[in-house]
Amino acid sequence: MKKQCLECGEKIVGRIDKKFCSDACRNSFNNRVNKDSKNLIRNTNNRLRKNYRVLEELNPDQKTKTSRAKLIEKGFDFNYFTSIYTTKVGTVYYFVYDQGYLPIEGDYYALVKRES
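Predicted structure:
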């Protein structure tokens, strides 16, 4: 019994455990199978990248203060961050990689950069 390619159905020649007739079929099959999860990951990474750029742009001196309105105007999305840091006194910083923000009085945020 001859094995058939999982993508195109062609006869497979070669190793007994081979599943695809070519690299093109293997890539096509895996791209199709992983499409849904890849869109979610791609969209999340794009949002994180955008947030990082906004924080980096508004915080050139590694420590500053800005308004919520300015962050939103630049396209910042508060739902996407990579980590949360809570200090000993209970202050909560939200980080997008090494760029962080801390909600302070009113609608203002302290922007910080984590030291390496």
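Summary: Residues 37-113 form one domain.
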